[in-house]
Fold this protein.
Amino acid sequence: MGNMANLQQIKALFLDMDGVLWEGSNPIGDLDRIFRKIAQLGIQPFFGTNNATRTPEMYRDHLTTFGVKIIPEQVITPAVGAVHVFRERFPENPRIHIFGSPALKAFFTAEGFELVDQDADIVLVSLDREMTYQKVQTAMHLIQQGAIFYATNLDTVIASENGFQPGGGVMVKAVQTCTGVEPIVIGKPNPLMIDLIRAKHGLQSNEIMAVGDRYDTDILGGINAGSPTALVLTGVDSEASIRNYKDQPNLICEDLEAVVDTLALSRM
Ligand SMILES: [Mg+2]
């Protein structure tokens, strides 16, 4: 079950949400109780998702329905990550073209960015449930004209109450295929979102534990950040499905509450 000794150092959790906290509109376990336990341990919870179609405020509201009170600043989405990256890399107010959801566009507009359909410095591709040929073509032309190609995430599918649906990676691959250009990816398994929390809250990577239900995004993202990791068995992956990976998570637990109880035991 991994290295128990390091668990005492953990000061923060970087929690995936879908498949860890809830499945659709159903909570996984008694979230109110779980988050009271986390608070009692003095551990700060942060929330990280590859889903860029919802804003941090929307996640706060969703958690409120399960009795968990958080502030939007605790939620890192690829959109939040992209804002930091773009401000750092393009200090001169970049012109951004977004091939993505209305919520993603609204988020960037609210952050003060200029959204354009021509002469873009940046093309950001994400899940777009109204994907069209024309949208692929516009992104393609802008990238060929010199815009830098970013992707919020490469998730091939997303889980929903009606089974799996195509993920943002489908739109990204469409643009990648016709341009021959590889995107810069903001979401997991890129460690960028964990790095942001680390920098903002003065934490070391070994003090943040990444918790998730998917190996190729959540666990690999934690490993890439140099952080301890915990796989929960309430979502996509199972002990059998990750058996062949060389780097195993530090913990494999039935659910989030079991992760928290293990952390509590390590402190006794
Ligand atoms: Mg998940």
